[in-house]
Amino acid sequence: MLLSLQKQIQYYADTISKVTGFEVEVVDTNLIRIAGTGDYSKNIGKSIKKAGNLLKATLKSTKPLFIENPRKNSICKGCQTKEQCHELLSICAPISDGKNTYGAMELICFSEEIRKKLIPQRDVYVNFLQLLTSSIAAHVLEKHAQKNLNDLFDAMSEVIEINNRGTMICDTNGKVVFKNARAQEILHKTLNSNFENFSLTATGVTFSDLDEFIIRQGDRQQLLAGKRVKLDSKTSRFSSVFIFDTIQSVISLSSGPSSPEDASLQHIIGNSPLIRTLKSQIQATSDTNSSVLISGESGTGKELVARAIHFSGNRNKEPFVAINCGAIPDTLLESELFGYVGGAFTGASKQGQIGKFELAAGGVIFLDEISSMPLYLQVKLLRVLQERTITRLGAANPISVDIRIIAACNDNLHEMMLQNKFRNDLYYRLNVIPIETPPLRNRMEDLTLLIKHFTNKYCDLFNKDQIFLSKNIRQRMEKYLWPGNIRELENAIEYLVNIADKKGKIDETSIYSGFLVNPENLGTTIPLSPNNHPPVIPLKELEFQAITRAIALYGDSTEGKRQAAKSLGISLATLYRKTSTY
Are 446 and 269 in contact (CB under 8 A)? Predict the structure, then answer.
């Protein structure tokens, strides 16, 4: 420990030597020479264990030792350098704080004249040396405490970095005196002037145990989720600690890990010319920020295409937020998309709520069934596309959002524009990159691959052997028009795996009567079971048939589904929920 104060101790030694005429030697507890004057300035940093009996004795003592006659004193007995010793007097004191000994300091006299003057003033010199060694010990203790503090600070810094959340510490003047790398990473676009002259304000919205804050600098602003803790110590120069993260990261962690691999191009099954073209379009448009409008029949995988665009692009590490505009009542859709502040409307949460656009910041928002969005919200969506800002319900200040918008519909938007049900300007803003998902009936060459994919999936899920599809079932599948497309095929395979026995064999007499029957053949006679009694059809299958017939009759568009739901005596939301389970 003395080595850390070597320069200061050597300065003391040189000064004492010049003032008193003594030579000075200082060692640590291992008898390593730390400082010295005259001949003792040699071999600094090396051991003197072969000599220095007085220093050895002093290290074991708690009091100074005064030796008037070196070589004759009992302490010098057995000293290996006794014959070469020319010392006339020595004073030695331990460098100690009362609890710990760090070394020893010795004053050595080689002048008879100085020796005669010193002996009568023995107590003065002993006290002086004792005060000096105590002072050195205090410095060592302070240095050690400072080192411990520095080590603790380094350890805390490591913990702060590993924690992977932004951390800022401010002094009593509000100046940032510490910021970790994560804080710089999160705020580099907003605080571009070295974390100075910015404001941090709580919005009143909360996320679990975290509060929402808005940080502003000039015309830049950013929303964060975190905790600000005030430090109440009156002696500290630090006033507050702010630990934070992006809102997207906080919500992503609370929602659990996602698997982007599930959205890769490999999960679009097929090798037909139409699918090869679709994959080429996805790859060509993945890295741009332009809006995409995906059109196609229900069940053709429009969301899967949207996810593949996101996963293949340069935003793949950012959020992908999907919302079905047709499945949410118009009165709630606005707050779902844009969020709201506390008390914005009757029934609103006191803490407020973040909207889907903010959740998707930095990434992609997928708006499915865009044609069902009411006109007044279409105006707001157009503003988002033009200005890249949103305003929460009940709030006054707009919030900047960096997002890519991908929309999808299975309605004819051109007809809706003619009927003034969809805005022309919004259509052209969304339809920068048009992509169409082909229906299954137009790519039947992919049927075998799709059947294999879904049979593997559900056989693994239900722990069954691979099912065997008879020639009759295969022919039904090949002749069927698949109005529900890939979603209907998957449901059909799940049904077949469910009714198969453990060895994968399917009893065709147990298949319900409407299985894979084209709408135009719904009135044809279905063969009876061998016992000449009509088969008992489960209620779920009857429900499935009723919904399939209604959609076939009224169409797969949003308006068609509304009519189908009305004819069935259920709400549109219930129809969406039930079809998603088939």
Answer: yes
CA distance 488 to 496: 12
Tokens of 578: 């039930």
Q: Which residue has the tokens 């809006």?
A: 291
- CA 506/CA 544 separation, integer angstroms: 20
Please check whether residue 97 is in contact with residue 134, taking contact to mean a CB–CB distance below 8 angstroms. Answer: yes
Please report, in tens digits, the pLDDT of each residue of the chain (582 residues total).
Answer: 788 888 889 988 999 888 888 999 999 988 999 999 998 998 898 888 776 678 888 888 888 999 888 888 878 776 767 777 888 999 999 999 888 899 999 999 998 888 888 899 889 989 999 999 999 989 888 888 777 767 767 666 666 666 678 888 888 888 888 888 889 888 988 887 778 888 888 877 776 667 888 888 887 888 888 888 887 766 567 888 898 988 777 766 555 444 444 567 888 999 999 999 999 999 999 989 999 999 999 899 999 999 999 999 998 888 888 999 988 888 889 888 998 877 666 665 666 778 889 888 888 999 999 999 999 999 999 999 999 998 888 887 888 888 999 999 988 899 999 999 999 999 999 999 999 999 999 999 999 999 999 999 999 888 888 888 889 999 989 999 898 899 999 999 999 999 988 888 888 888 887 788 876 655 444 443 444 444 556 677 778 778 877 887 777 778 778 888 888 888 887 888 787 665
pTM of the model: 0.58
Q: Where are the alpha helices (DSSP H) in 355-446?
A: 356-359, 375-387, 413-418, 424-430
CA dist., res. 25 & res. 129, Å (int)? 12
Q: Write out the H or E segment, with its range, that includes residue 303.
A: helix 302-312
- The C-alpha atoms of residue 442 and residue 277 are separated, in whole angstroms, by 13
Report residue 530 as tokens.
Answer: 């061998």
Q: Which amino acid is at 287?
A: D
DSSP string covering 245-264, please? EEHHHHHHHHH----GGGGS
Tokens at residue 351, please?
A: 């803490």
Q: Say how far apart CA 341 and CA 351 lie, in whole Å.
A: 7
What six digits make up the tokens of 421?
A: 């049900």
Gyration radius from the chain CA atoms: 42
Residue 518 identity: N
Dist CA 160 CA 157 (whole Å): 5
- Amino acid at site 248: Q
User: Other C-beta atoms within 10 Å of 86: how many?
Assistant: 9
